[in-house]
User: What shape does this take?
Amino acid sequence: SAVISQKPSRDICQRGTSLTIQCQVDSQVTMMFWYRQQPGQSLTLIATANQGSEATYESGFVIDKFPISRPNLTFSTLTVSNMSPEDSSIYLCSVEGTGFNYGYTFGSGTRLTVV
Amino acid sequence: KQEVTQIPAALSVPEGENLVLNCSFTDSAIYNLQWFRQDPGKGLTSLLLIQSSQREQTSGRLNASLDKSSGRSTLYIAASQPGDSATYLCAVRGNTDKLIFGTGTRLQVFP
Assistant: This one.
């Protein structure tokens, strides 16, 4: 299965600023997924990123707040813009494996605290 | 709309016990179901993947079963160890490429 390198692993940011999270995959993948996990909650899909096209956002998430880049088949970034304390969460990227017996692989997560 | 629920929400057991974690989903039209483990503040580690055509998968002390028609999956952990302490998440993939996650079971195994 794919291996994902995600960084930063954690950050503490001031409100009103922005943070860009990076995910690098060791193989080419068509789609990359970005999730948010709020404290004590399960994972919620933010958007799906395809190379060469705009990301598709889930209900409740907008591009101005969470712009995503997907410059090639192995890399993607998620920016959390104009942060507030409510954005404090773990953010994770994910890819789906290829073949019948491969499921989804996740990055190690970015733990964001907004103060 | 697919909804995934996990029971119990939390579980605390002594070392050595055999455990059953439950996952239920409302729409049986799934492509596969995957069990993950998450340590505090960390990412997800895939444990087992069951395709919709399969009934169960095993890996070491873990066994996951799937009853698609009734919308249920169970994760069986044999001879639990303190190192098994983590949150366990199930997730279903429907006909789209999206994973829908359950609410999680927080497991603590004490010596």
